[in-house]
Amino acid sequence: MSNISLFQRKYQELKNCLIKIQALEAAASVLNWDQTTYMPTGGTYARGRQIATLKEFAHEELTDQSIGQLLEDLRPYEQSLPYGSTEASLIRVTRRDYERATRVPPKFMAKFCQHQAVSYEAWVKAKSLKDFSIVRPYLEKTLELSRELASFFPYKHIADPLIDLVDEGMTVSILRPLFSKLRQKLRPIVEAITSVPSIDDSCLHQYYPKEQQLQFGCNVIERIGFDFQRGRIDVTPHPFTSSFSIGDVRITTRVYEDNLTESLFSTIHEGGHALYEQGIGLELEGTLLAGGTSSGIHESQSRLWENIVGRSRGFWECFYPQLQGIFLKQLSSVPVSQFYQAINKVVKSPIRTDADEVTYNLHIMIRFDLELAMLEGKLAVKDLPEAWNERYKRDLGIVPANDSQGVMQDVHWYGEMIGGMFQGYTLGNLIAAQIYQGAVKHNPEITVAIEQGNFTLLHKWLKQNIHEHGRKYTANELINRVTGKPLSIDPFIDYIQDKYSNMYDLKGPIPA
Amino acid sequence: MSNISLFQRKYQELKNCLIKIQALEAAASVLNWDQTTYMPTGGTYARGRQIATLKEFAHEELTDQSIGQLLEDLRPYEQSLPYGSTEASLIRVTRRDYERATRVPPKFMAKFCQHQAVSYEAWVKAKSLKDFSIVRPYLEKTLELSRELASFFPYKHIADPLIDLVDEGMTVSILRPLFSKLRQKLRPIVEAITSVPSIDDSCLHQYYPKEQQLQFGCNVIERIGFDFQRGRIDVTPHPFTSSFSIGDVRITTRVYEDNLTESLFSTIHEGGHALYEQGIGLELEGTLLAGGTSSGIHESQSRLWENIVGRSRGFWECFYPQLQGIFLKQLSSVPVSQFYQAINKVVKSPIRTDADEVTYNLHIMIRFDLELAMLEGKLAVKDLPEAWNERYKRDLGIVPANDSQGVMQDVHWYGEMIGGMFQGYTLGNLIAAQIYQGAVKHNPEITVAIEQGNFTLLHKWLKQNIHEHGRKYTANELINRVTGKPLSIDPFIDYIQDKYSNMYDLKGPIPA
User: Fold this and answer.
1) Phi, psi dihedrals of residue B252, rounded to the nearest 5°
2) What sign does the CA torsion over B6, B12, B13, B14 have?
3) Which residue from A305, B25, B178, B268 lies 20 to 30 Å from B74 (Cα-Cα)?
4) Stretch A201-229: mean pLDDT, rounded?
């Protein structure tokens, strides 16, 4: 057998292993989706065990020595191929996942998962009782386990390996100065906006029947490019996106009948995630390349559609007449300009998920800094609520009414870990602006097309430049390829300044 | 370590293995349920692969030598324990499944599964085109593979191993004389009934809106004992029951708006299957004992509730006022006696799934005999349609209009295999009558309780005597334990004679 055909045989062997792993992972996702959407409560206990078992099998398969051997054998083949070829990328990314997975002892992962489940339960209780002390011992254990997880990897900063798990290539030494600059730019903008009279958004808080809200949301994402032949939408308390294969990508949304924006922008947000997963190149199906490349890039796709497109004036020039037609009683006397202002109202609020796009990153950066301080041992869990409230006062000028609206508002630390949990959101916002700028630079007609309800131009560009590649390129590689520049805060700041100085009657230009 | 604690450790090890296998099997079932209920069409290809992979893993795990070793090591432990103890039963039944699974080469199973998928596709096409020749070559291959599957087991009759896969302990030498006697008894009864003027069941074929039909069906099965905290109902083209754990048992139904009985009795039928699965003892959860013990026993539970209870006069004394209340326009002038007759109309029809409980077994026994003839090599696939039509003429006095309403009406031979596919239905009818007779003998108040809408008495008795045991006992063992007698056709014949001689104005007693 020639070397090439030997390599091809081994490559096929590797692919066959990955297809099995993908089936296990996809099954775990389906079981999770089902648990959140349709499962009767009686199924809870067994379902947890079933998902854990599938994940264990997937982990065992991925860390099997035979994969390591195949990856070793395929090294010369990989090196003989172009970096961006499917084959080289598949070998490279699989090796990265393999090496990452083999560093962590399975027993440790099982222990951590078990702790996450009980910690989550404690958080649910603590949050409903507004009593941080209930969850505190669990969070202390989570911190200990998060540090232990990091310790299985080499690092410069202890948070680096945890960040790297979801945002590969990002480190504290990159993110800290980036975020610090972003905060410096954002705070005066927020001050300027919030010093002028507040926008009246009461038009959004009338009675909007559930079914019509859902129907409109579906229309919108279908127009944007969501393929209902290869996906569906359901209603859950917390919206999320899951992908079981490139042909089966599902989103969920939630609906409040006294709030028009919650369901609509959740749907567009998840729709953005889903376009990414539906757009992955079919040749990557069943391999580890068939997924989003990082938390930041994934979030960039959801935020791009939710905010840059979905909260733009042009978008509503297109969709507002339809929305008015559906909710005639509620909106017939509300002009599009007023609606546009209402959906873009900037306000300093205590809750991250309610935050507008201007203040949102301030919320994230507070969490990022506190994560680092805890991992560094500079902040004890017992002092976390106080540190949280202090930072909110300093950065946003408000103090949460209680710990449920403060330090316990997000599930991440309580259900997952401390470290790597939040930077992806702000990265997403930055990357979205940078990518959109790149898209418009290549296709200046994109903005006019959106006003005319034509989203194909933008969607196609994103598909070709981002979606299709799946995990072939890291976030940093993608950003460089697509925009010709490394990650920067400038496009985001430019976008915010443009949009909000046009919208608000600010005295003089917004400070840059 | 003492022998006992060594055994207990090994027993626990075995249980841990089984919990993993159950998780894989349950995941495959969830994926299958999802495919039938909610999956977008784009997911089809990947889903097939995912389910196949999970089943492969489950098979690999079950046939792992370590299981064989544990079973060997546990033999003395098993023998030291009572036959019906959970421990002894678990070891015994696991050994049976292990031995069965290890006999069949994994490669053969993969080949067979693949063939089943393409054969199913061919059947869908052939049926819609009413052209048997399209599916014939696939069915010939299925016959060959079915024979090969049987050949991995020792047997007296080549169909025995295939029957044993789903109805353990049943053989051709038991079933053939049993069925022959049944046919002899049934044919004159059918003749007697169909010689008197036919019942007018047009009241069932008015317009019945879907939502109200579904709601009524849910009410009925909830009253019977279906626990919606541990199950749910959805709508699919072909009704089925699936169990993912004892706390999560789901049924599906279908609704025709011009037919009141289709959805109702499908729902009760699947509800009966579900009561069985929901009633399994919790200590069996996650093991191979947590399931129905045979096709026949499972079918006995669905048919008992569907026919013996659900088509009884007493049942409708209780439910008919409610049904009339919902469908006032359609039923207010239809007295309960007329409704009762309509839902029990006996008619010689070409389609099994439309058949009443009197003619139903004649349909089944035709299929059973043809299966045996094909497996024995006495009937070639090419001659099957003719043989089918001849038997229908002989046994039911009718000839199907075409092969789609004849030999191609059921999916079983085309999507699964030839052999073991049909005896379970007739066994189910026989066992249902025998078990119900046993239940009433122990609790004579059961029939009155049903008239009063109290189903707890019967449900509780079935739970204690059948459901709770899961797979601890074989069908034959269960029937003997519960009724004190081996399987017999007498209770069924008695039931049919009683019910229908009361209902029809027959000249003289029905011949016995």
Assistant:
1) -130, 160
2) positive
3) B25
4) 97
Contact status of A291 with chain B (Cβ, < 8 Å): no
- Using the Cβ of A206 and the Cβ atoms of chain B, whether some distance falls under 8 Å is answered with no
Touching check for B181 and chain A: CB below 8 Å? Answer: no
CB atoms within 10 A of CB A443: 14
Alpha carbon distance B180, B198 (integer Å): 27
> What percent of chain A clears pLDDT 90, i.e. is strictly above it?
93
Q: Please give the pLDDT value at position B508.
A: 52
* Low-confidence residues in chain B, pLDDT < 50: none
User: Cβ of B232 and A34 within 8 Å?
Assistant: no
Shortest Cα distance, chain A CAs vs residue B17, angstroms? 11
Residues A238 and A253: their CA atoms lie apart, in Å, by 7
Return the pLDDT at A1.
56
CB-facing half-sphere around the CA of B127: CA atoms within 13 A:
16
List pLDDT tens digits, range B348-387. Answer: 999 999 999 999 999 999 999 999 999 999 999 999 999 9
Residue type, position B496, single letter? I
Using the predicted structure, report yes or no on whether residue A454 has a pLDDT greater than 90. Answer: yes
Query: Which residues in chain A have their CB less than 8 angstroms from residue B42's CB?
Result: 227, 229-231, 245, 247-248
Chain A residues touching residue B44 (CB < 8 angstroms): 247
| pLDDT attached to residue A506 | 62
Contact at CB, B39 and A246, closer than 8 angstroms = no
> What is residue B117's predicted lDDT score, i.e. its pLDDT?
87
Residue B44: closest C-alpha in chain A: A247
Phi, psi for residue B323 in degrees, rounded to 5: -65, -45
Alpha-carbon span A396 to A365, nearest angstrom = 11
DSSP-assigned letters across all residues of A42-62 = GGHHHHHHHHHHHHHHHHHHH
Q: CB–CB of A232 and B27 under 8 A?
A: no
pLDDT at B4: 79
Task: State the DSSP string of A436-496.
Answer: HHHHHHH-TTHHHHHHTT--HHHHHHHHHHTGGGTTSS-HHHHHHHHHSS---SHHHHHHH
Structure tokens, A271: 């729709």
Query: Rounded CA gap, A320 and A334, in Å?
Result: 10
Contacting residues of A for B64, CB less than 8 Å apart:
none
Tokens describing residue A23: 């089936």
Mean pLDDT score, A357-362: 97
Residue written as tokens 């996809």? A26
Is B55 in CB contact (< 8 Å) with chain A? no
Residue B269 and residue B1: Cα distance in Å, rounded?
Answer: 51
Q: What is the 3-state secondary structure (H, E, C) of A245-313?
A: ECCEEEEEECCECCEHHHHHHHHHHHHHHHHHHHCCCHHHCCCCCCCCCCHHHHHHHHHHHHHHHCCCH
CA-to-CA separations, A443 to A240, A304, A458, in angstroms, rounded = 31, 16, 8
Q: Which residues contact B156 (CB under 8 A, 6 or more apart)?
A: B171, B172, B173
Please state which of the ranges A287-301, A366-380, B281-295, B497-511 shows the lowest mean pLDDT.
Answer: B497-511
In the predicted structure, residue A183 carries a pLDDT above the cut 60: yes
CA B454 to each of CA A448, B142, B213, B309: distance values in angstroms, whole numbers, following the listed order:
68, 47, 22, 12
> In B228-387, which ranges are E strands?
231-235, 241-245, 248-253
* pLDDT 10s digits, B238-264: 999 999 999 999 999 999 999 999 999
Tell me whether A231 touches chain B (CB under 8 Å).
Answer: yes
Q: Is the pLDDT score of A197 beyond 90? A: no
- pLDDT interval class at A507 (50, 70, 90): low
DSSP character for B197?
A: P
ipTM of the complex, rounded to two decimals = 0.93
- Answer yes or no: CATH 1.10.260.40 is held by domain B206-350+429-473: no
Q: With beta carbons less than 8 A apart as the criterion, state whether B156 and B450 touch.
A: no
Local structure of B52: helix, strand or coil? helix
Tokens 């947890």 correspond to A48
